[in-house]
Amino acid sequence: MWKWLHPYAKGEATYRLLGAWLPWLSALAALFVAVGLGWGLFYAPPDYQQGDSYRIIFIHVPAAMFSMGAYTGMAIAALIALVWQIRTAEWAIAAIAPVGAVLTFVALFTGAVWGKPMWGTWWEWDARLTSELILLFLYIGVLALYYAFNDARTGAKAAAILALVGVVNVPIIHFSVYWWNSLHQGATITKFEKPSMPVEMLTPLLISIAGFLFLTAALVTQRLRNEILKQELHRPWAQQQLGVEAEHGV
Amino acid sequence: MAFDSWQEAIWMGGYGFYVWLSFGVSLLAIGMLVVHGLLVRKKLAIMAVQQQQRKQRLARRQQQERQAHNEQSQVKGAQ
C-alpha cells in the first residue's frame, strides 16, 4: 500500500517532485498572503476595543500557528529519520528548522509590538510567551546540533533526537492559555464553539492562515531542494540541475 | 475600505507605528529567508562548477601522464 513512497527515499526523485510543486506553492502563497494581509489591513472593520491595533492579528496568528505546525512536521521527519534511517527525512529537519525559527520570531516580534499598546508592555514572562520563546530556542538548538558534527549523519541524528523530545512543547504552547493565568487572550478560532470573531474579520484571517500554510510549504520546499542538492552534489544529476554540463568522457 | 483616506490608513487610529513595525519586520524576516535560499542555490552552482573543473583537471593530468608513460615505453621498445 505504501510502496509508492519508496522511490522518494532517493534524493533525485524527491528533488523533482518538490520542483514540480514549488511554483504552485509560491504562487498560492503570494496570492493568499497578499489578499489576506491587504484585506486585513485596509478593509476589515476596526475592533470595538482594540481599534486598528488588532490588525497585527492577521500576521501574528498565522505565524504562530505555523511556527507550531512546522515544529510538528519537523518532529515527524525526525521520527522517520530515527526509525527508518531515511536520509531525505534527515535533510527535511535541516530544511524545516530555519523556516520554523523565522515564523517563531515573527510570532514573538508581532506579539511584542501588539502587547506594547494593548498590555502596556513589550514582554511578560507568562506561560504562552515563555513557551513560544522556548520553541525558538528549540529550533536554534536543532539547527546548531545538525551542523555541529564533522560527520553529517551524527549531527542529523542528534538534531532528530532534540526535535523529537522538544515536541512536548507544542501542546504546552497551545494549552498554556488555559492551564495558567495569562495576559494572552484565549483561542479565537481553534475551538469547538462558534468562532468569537465576526465574519468580516474572520474571512481575511482565514485567507491569511491559508497563505501562511502555502508560504511555509514553499519555503520548506525551497530549502529541502537546496539541502538535497548539497548532499548529492557529487552526483551527475545534481550537477546537471545546477547547470553543469554532463561529462562527455574527457 | 475601512478608512476614509490613505493618510488615515497609515495613521491606523494612532496605532500606525505598531501595525507597520510588525508588518514591516515580519515581511523583512521572511524576505531574508527567501533571499538566503536563493543565495545558497547560487553557491551550490558555483561549487558544482568548481568540482567539475577539478575533475577535468585531474583527468587531463592523468591522460598526460599516461601519454608520457606510453612515449617512454615506446622509446625503450625502439632501443
UniProtKB/TrEMBL annotation, chain A:
Protein keywords: Cell inner membrane, Cell membrane, Cytochrome c-type biogenesis, Membrane, Transmembrane, Transmembrane helix, Transport
Membrane topology, record value: Multi-pass membrane protein
A Pfam family: Cytochrom_C_asm
Compartment(s) where it occurs, according to its Swiss-Prot or TrEMBL record: Cell inner membrane; Membrane
Superkingdom in the source lineage: Bacteria
Family to which this protein belongs: Belongs to the CcmC/CycZ/HelC family.
Function: Required for the export of heme to the periplasm for the biogenesis of c-type cytochromes.
Protein name: Heme exporter protein C
The organism's taxonomic lineage, starting at the top: Bacteria, Pseudomonadati, Pseudomonadota, Gammaproteobacteria, Alteromonadales
From TrEMBL, chain B:
Transmembrane segments: 15-40
InterPro entries (UniProt xref): Haem_export_protD_CcmD, Heme_exporter_D
UniProt keyword Cell inner membrane present: yes
A biological-process GO annotation: cytochrome complex assembly
Record's GO cellular component terms: plasma membrane
Subcellular location: Cell inner membrane
Compositionally biased tracts (Low complexity): 70-79
Keywords from the UniProt entry: Cell inner membrane, Cell membrane, Cytochrome c-type biogenesis, Membrane, Transmembrane, Transmembrane helix, Transport
Region (Disordered): 58-79
Topology versus the membrane: Single-pass membrane protein
Keyword Transmembrane helix: yes
Job of this protein: Required for the export of heme to the periplasm for the biogenesis of c-type cytochromes.
Family: Belongs to the CcmD/CycX/HelD family.
Name this protein carries in UniProt: Heme exporter protein D
Organism ancestry: Bacteria, Pseudomonadati, Pseudomonadota, Gammaproteobacteria, Alteromonadales
